[in-house]
Write a structure and sequence with these properties.
The protein is of the alpha/beta class. It has 5 domains: 3-207, 3-Layer(aba) Sandwich (Rossmann fold), CATH 3.40.50; 215-398, 3-Layer(aba) Sandwich (Rossmann fold); 417-524, Winged helix-like DNA-binding domain superfamily/Winged helix DNA-binding domain (Arc Repressor Mutant, subunit A, Orthogonal Bundle), CATH 1.10.10; 538-634, DNA polymerase, domain 1; 657-763, no CATH class. Helix content is 42%, strand content 15%. β15 (492-494) and β16 form a beta hairpin. α14 runs antiparallel to α15 (364-386). The longest helix has 23 residues, at 364-386. The chain is globular. It starts with a helix and ends with a helix.
Length: 766
């Protein structure tokens, strides 16, 4: 397609271009502001999460600017994927990198001079070569777009010295073009560094927010990671997913295990030949296989939209790495899982990898700075694995946002915690670490305080420690969780080779200091099913799913014919909407999100024909075409091949009037006693157990108590209304001698709680 053919396309505004080229009716948040700024001639820095549509922000302006747009991109696979996608929707683009032969390189430059291309993707290393520099000075360059812009910052987690060539290249151009920079992961320091290093002139800066609501975050600590992976894949056999490992050895071992179990799987790491990597990547991208096991060398720029899960077999080195890699799930906007499998050994692996990181191009001063920042990022990632707070909020706060309340839709939010004062136990563990003189790791410390009888403890003399066996009556899981929290709160420090040493222990010498631990009953761990946030979502029925599968089969057939990844034709979310709405006309199909005029011309009649044929075979379905927007259509968590009887779920805790009569009131109860009494009188096993959260939420909603933060911990305090009703605070001392406060609730408040649960029961028709 040459320049004259480009001008024949019928669009005159960015909104029209969005619809004609990409098939979308409206811009996502932030996109229009970036596009308008570029078209006004202003530099731009945009930080937008993976899947938020960064590429549209420079691809559409490129079609309106008079000259060529150069897109600086770090990976060959990223360029090839983007160019193929652009050509498919009618945007003339090409790439220049080391994969081209000399003749292909010269032909690309020749066609660019003739006006065939509006966009050229180029590797940063190529910019200052003599041939390309001569070309750049000879054509009109309207904009330089820096993709993965965090790579230019030494503050960033993925600094690439080759990106500094961009600055040198711009200086040598006869006229400075607009410069736009885009990234998905950048803290405030990194953003400032990007602006400064690239020399952006009064840029329009956009940070749209890092939250990806369709992603479900979860941290697991399984005893056997391999078995966890096998179980997960057996339950999600038809879903597409990525499993990241920290080392090539882990990739190879897990790949062989999955392959031996008959799972169609690919692998990807730098130890494979270029041809092997390409085949494995293509098999995954083109949907020949569903699962790929890879190191972090895989994924950047792989715009595969239907990835339903990303599992990290090992903890990544930084939150930036984790969020970028996890963000490759759910790019189509449908629900997806991000699961991190953590074990303490992951920390040792990452420390080793950081110590052997390639740093030959850095001077000593920069090297020390980068090492320090790498260590801080690793510690932040470690705290994420140990935290009991909302996982989504932890991520958002790391990137500078300030969420006001838990998301109620992550692995931690869906767990039930009980808070326990373990200050005395914490001091005993700290005393044990002191006696160990910072020479041993978790296993030795835990076994020592529990009084284990092992040859290793005898060998090192731990059986003679004063702390040997001091927590013998304490559950081992609680001791492990307490140790995790002491590390997370920096009372203890994990050093080289995973040895534990003393940290900021001075705080515990204060009589008011407490170590409050959230205890999880692992047996009550919820199924790995995130709650749906939208009330109007439409989940595909079994019959709708059958149509969806037929649409996918057609897409795969067309993709095979044209030798391209299936998602470039239509992504899963577009097919889901087709299966729900069942369009039968040109107009109806164009109203499906992701279907533009260009794609309708190529594929529309084939998909309409399939849908019409389906409706002929299933005439009863014609009366049930769903009229919903594309954002309301979601894919089932698990897609059955045939209708299955769902397991019955327990309903929330409520009471019948008959059960309420059996409640034994007292002058005063603490919240634990109220909970236990409620569970005693509940006769129906189909209901969940009463929890602290149920009772506390009601008391807060009635303005009887509120939660007050003190030194990062939440304490419950009665309001004036609560005081008037007789709620009182008492001082108590635990069996270990630790002082704490407790709220006691009088009989009238107990009755309010019981009556509330009865009324809830009536609305639920128990």
């Amino acid at each position: 397609m040459n320049q004259s053919e480009v001008e024949k396309i019928n669009y005159h505004t960015p909104e029209e271009a969005l619809k004609v080229l990409f098939g979308y009716d409206a811009f996502r948040p932030g996109q229009k502001n970036v596009i308008d700024s570029i078209l006004a001639g202003r530099d731009v820095l945009a930080v937008m999460p993976t899947g938020a549509g960064k590429s549209v922000c420079y691809q559409i302006p490129a079609m309106f600017l008079p000259g060529i747009t150069l897109v600086i991109s770090p990976l060959i696979s990223l360029m090839q994927d983007q160019v193929k996608t652009l050509n498919e929707v009618g945007i003339p683009a090409a790439f220049i990198n080391s994969s081209l032969s000399e003749s292909a390189f010269m032909e690309t430059l020749k066609r660019a001079r003739q006006g065939f291309y509006k966009m050229i993707y180029v590797a940063p290393e190529r910019l200052v070569t003599e041939g390309f520099l001569h070309f750049a000075k000879d054509v009109s360059i309207s904009m330089i777009t820096v993709d993965e812009a965090h790579c230019i910052s030494q503050w960033g987690q993925d600094f690439r010295p080759s990106y500094m060539k961009i600055v040198e290249f711009v200086r040598q151009l006869p006229q400075r073009p607009i410069i736009s920079a885009f990234t998905a992961t950048a803290t405030e320091h990194v953003r400032e560094d990007i602006v400064c290093t690239l020399g952006l002139n009064n840029p329009f800066c956009l940070v749209t927010g890092f939250d990806r609501e369709n992603l479900f975050f979860q941290v697991e600590k399984p005893k056997n990671k391999d078995q966890y992976i096998l179980d997960y894949l057996s339950e999600h056999a038809k879903e597409s997913g990525i499993i990241y490992c920290a080392t090539r050895k882990n990739v190879d071992n897990l790949y062989e295990l999955l392959k031996s179990k008959g799972i169609l799987v690919a692998k990807y790491h730098a130890g494979l030949s270029a041809s092997e990597r390409k085949k494995m990547q293509d098999d995954f991208v083109f949907d020949y296989i569903n699962v790929i096991v890879a190191t972090n060398a895989f994924g950047m720029g792989i715009d595969k939209s239907n990835v339903r899960f990303v599992i990290h077999y090992n903890m990544p080195q930084s939150m930036e790495n984790y969020y970028q890699e996890a963000g490759r799930a759910g790019r189509d906007g449908a629900d997806a899982k991000c699961i991190l499998l953590f074990s303490p050994q992951d920390i040792a692996i990452n420390r080793f990898l950081l110590e052997h990181k390639e740093t030959s191009e850095l001077d000593m001063e920069d090297l020390e700075t980068i090492k320090e920042r790498d260590l801080k990022r690793l510690q932040a990632m470690e705290r994420y694995c140990y935290t009991t707070e909302c996982l989504r909020n932890y991520i958002l706060r790391y990137f500078g946002e300030n969420p006001q309340k838990p998301c109620e839709d992550c692995g931690n939010c869906l767990r039930e915690f009980e808070t326990r004062d373990m200050t005395n136990e914490a001091k005993q563990i700290i005393n044990c670490v002191f006696e160990a003189k910072g020479r041993y790791g978790r296993t030795i410390i835990i076994d020592t305080v529990l009084g284990a009888k092992t040859a290793r403890l005898e060998e090192i003399g731990a059986m003679h420690f004063r702390t040997y066996g001091v927590l013998a009556k304490t559950n081992k899981n609680l001791v492990k969780r307490l140790l995790d929290q002491l590390i997370a709160e920096k009372y203890l420090v994990v050093g080289a080779y995973q040895v534990i040493s003393l940290g900021e222990i001075q705080r515990l010498k204060n009589d008011d200091a407490h170590v409050l631990v959230k205890i999880t009953d692992e047996d009550k761990m919820p199924e790995k099913t995130p709650k749906k946030k939208a009330n109007k979502t439409v989940t595909l029925t079994s019959s709708g799913y059958k149509l969806f599968e037929k649409l996918r089969a057609l897409r795969l057939e067309l993709a095979r014919e044209e030798n391209m990844p299936p998602y470039i034709i239509f992504n899963d979310k577009t097919l889901m909407e087709m299966a729900a709405k069942m369009p039968t006309s040109h107009t109806e199909l164009l109203n499906i999100s992701g279907v533009g005029e260009r794609k309708y011309e190529k594929y529309g009649e084939k998909f309409l024909g399939l849908i019409k044929e389906w409706m002929k075979e299933n005439p009863d379905l014609a009366e049930h075409k769903v009229a919903v927007s594309e954002s309301d259509v979601v894919l089932s968590e698990k897609l059955p091949e045939k209708p299955r009887k769902r397991k019955s779920r327990k309903m929330d805790f409520v009471l019948t009037e008959a059960e309420a009569l059996e409640f034994q009131y007292a002058d005063f109860y603490n919240i634990s006693s109220i909970r236990d009494e409620l569970n005693r009188i509940c006769k129906n096993d189909d209901r969940k157990k009463a929890t602290f959260r149920i009772i506390t939420t009601f008391l807060i909603s009635e303005d009887l108590i509120f939660e007050q933060e003190n030194e990062g911990r939440l304490f419950k305090v009665q309001t004036e209304k609560g005081l008037a009703l007789g709620i009182k605070t008492i001082e108590k001392v635990s069996e270990r001698g630790n002082a704490y406060t407790q709220l006691l609730y009088p009989e009238n408040v107990q009755k309010m709680i019981v009556n509330h649960l009865v009324e809830l029961g009536k609305t639920m028709e128990i």
